[in-house]
Design goal:
Elements: H1 2-7, E1 9-12, E2 20-23, H2 25-28, H3 31-45, E3 52-56, H4 59-71, E4 75-78, E5 88-94, E6 99-105, E7 114-122, H5 126-136, E8 141-150, H6 156-162, E9 166-172
Parallel strand pairs: 3-4, 3-7, 7-8, 8-9
Antiparallel strand pairs: 1-2, 5-6
The structure holds hypoxanthine.
């Protein structure tokens, strides 16, 4: 796991003063660490009883796509407004300043689906919790969520757990 950690760059004061930004673009630029990340995520997720993966825009798509192929389940994209061409379900969520909305194609989820959420990083959990609500709109359930990086001090991991989601990740940072 140290190889993966070493390939993630920390950028001080991005995007705002005081924030230590954990940047996975440097991980993607290191093929060995990137391959290892995909392999470890596969090990974490291979026995999860899910029938769909929902990947969160944008960096979640990278890992969600490879995992969906490995687990042989459909990959469903949770996207920002104006990106998905068919009819969508939508869910608003709070940002530090203001709010944003996530969409999923309405016909991509069915009642009873058991969903695994994939994203690169969990911080406050706002987007992942919006996906939990989106999925619940159709009577489906998010049973698990898996991330490359967790920042548990920002509260997202425990918020997801309180919502009944089993949370896993490869690395954590304070
Ligand atoms: N990296 C990437 N995305 C983030 C971070 C971070 O450190 N914190 C909140 N969102």
């Amino acid at each position: 796991m140290e190889k993966i950690r070493n390939a993630i760059t920390t950028i001080a004061n991005f995007p705002k003063p005081g924030i230590q930004f954990r940047d996975i673009t440097s991980l993607l630029e290191c093929p060995e660490a990137s391959r290892l990340t995909v392999e470890k995520l596969g090990h974490k997720c291979i026995d999860i009883d899910c029938n769909k993966i929902v990947a969160i825009e944008a960096r979640g798509f990278i890992f969600g796509a490879t995992l969906a192929q490995e687990l042989s389940v459909p990959l469903v994209l949770a996207r920002k407004p104006g990106k998905l061409p068919r009819a969508t379900l939508q869910q608003q969520y709070k940002l530090e300043y203001g709010q944003d909305t996530l969409h999923i194609h309405r016909d991509s989820l069915q009642e009873g689906d058991r969903v695994l959420i994939i994203d690169d990083l969990i911080a406050t959990g706002g987007t992942a919790l919006a996906v939990v609500k989106l999925v619940e709109q159709v009577g489906a359930q998010v049973t698990h969520a898996c991330f490359v990086v967790a920042l548990p001090e920002l509260g997202g991991v425990s918020r997801l757990q309180k919502a009944g989601v089993r949370v896993d990740y490869l690395l954590e940072y304070d």
